[in-house]
Amino acid sequence: MTHAPPRAPASIYVAGLFAMGYTEFYIFLIPLYGLSLGMGASEIGLLVGARSLLAVFLSIHIGVLMDRFGTRRVTLFFVWTAMALAPVFPLILWFWPLWMLQVVNGGALSFAWSGSQTLIAQLAEGEAESIGRFSFFARIGTTVAPILVGIAWDCGGAWPSYMLGFAWGALLTIALLRAPEAQIAPADASARRPPIRFRARDALPRLPNYVHCFALMAIPAVATTMAIIFLRTATNGVQSSLYVVYLNGVGLTGTSIGILFAAIEITSGLGSLFAGRAMRLGDPQRTMLTGTVLSILLISVTPFIGAIFALLLLAQALRGWLQGVVQPLMFSVQAKAVGRYRQGSVVGLRQTMNRLAAIVIPPAMGAIADLWGAGSSFVILGALLLLLSAPVALITHRAPRSETSAVLSQPQSPQTEAR
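RESULT FIELD:
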């Protein structure tokens, strides 16, 4: 008998819009605020990077807390933390206090977004179509948030901008409160336990939790998707650094570059709506790898396109659509591979790998560009990423398709998932 996953409530899609937009809101705002205080480029760079610091070390710990205490409860705590810190930003006029505030606030925003991802995976039981819709609404948030904060900044500067951030968090709170809490692992198959009481010592990370989370990579589906996440993050890193430098060098205006960036966001959102159908077309792991390899090729051919805007726009649109299809597939494969009661753990592991890649890859790309130039770097990086794709392809090819299909189509028992 085929297991039909429950339909995710509309409120969780609204939460996805505000959760991812919440992060983009502050990413866009902190450079403007730093510049208004007269800070230099290096100081602003440190402020931007500070938001990832806690996510690298604590994403797994927070994911475990979501599995133990309830995803919505933990997510709301971090949403409220970010709301409380919003009016503090305009009061801080010095670099190091602002850096510390950015570390804490960035962690809260990251964990709120992780919680929203975990909640949709739990409520939809990893079903790709629902996760695709969630990703579509999340892309709306990333598109709308910078526009709104830009208007608020132009109208009144820091205070109205950060108070708009407070209001954004309030709307996210309403959406989360209207969404149901996901079931916590029962003590046995026939019992449902209420959320356990939080103790002060639970706030401290524990080494066994990290060991158990990294052990999830022994599951082939999890290991494959983590490798694909690394490759995907690498292509995004190329776009946010070398891509902009190269396009500026060949004479494209800021407006033209902005249109290219908007194209990938729009088509990514549209592509995510196709994820459910892509899940049913064939082996999802091979689909993910194929889409990622094509994305690498599309960003690597940039120097061969030159300044032909129509071709650059086409490449961006295709790459965005492929990434939009692949992202929900990754989330769905991981969610179904680990079971209902380890969703926070696998999202924490995913965020850890994502943040590590985001920290390590840009400096490596900058070093290559300094040695061989921006144009040649696309080819070098593309070749390296394709080389890294080879072992992933080998694992995917050797994995029995029947085993993969069984993992993705059959629900696990509570006893198995709770282990």
